[in-house]
Each structure stands twice: as structure tokens, then as C-alpha cells.
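Hi Y.,

Following your request, here is the sequence exactly as I used it, all 72 residues.
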Amino acid sequence: PYTTLFRSANGLRITGWVRNDWDGTVEMEAQGTLEQLNQMLKLINQGTYIQVEDLRRKTIPLDREERGFHVR
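Below is the corresponding structure, written out as C-alpha cells. Let me know if you'd prefer a different format.
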């Protein structure tokens, strides 16, 4: 599943991270334009091994030092 996230994020030049939480949920922080982020979500939803059941969005301060997209 992370492969889809990496390809989507890197292809769209989105920075941030993704991790599995203790309760089985996945948490992701992504930085990009609204258009980039919406496109990434569209690509994720088209993925074979990922099923999004609940999505919560939150606006947070921009991290100008962040580079690339990685697993935590």
C-alpha cells in the first residue's frame, strides 16, 4: 500500500509522511497545493490494495524544511 502513496506523492511533488498507528489506522501528513492533494487522494482511491473507509482532513502549518515523502 505504501508504494501507491510514494508514487502518488513523489509524482505530484508532495512532501510529508505516512505511518501505521497502533489501532490499525493509517495517518498521513501531506504538503502541496489543494489540486495536488486532491489528485493524490484520487490516485490512492484507485489503488488495488488500499481501501479508504474514513477520511479526515485538517489544515496545519506549513513545514518549509520538509523534503520528500517518507514512512515514519
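The CA atoms of residues 7 and 65 lie 21 Å apart.

Thanks again,
Q.
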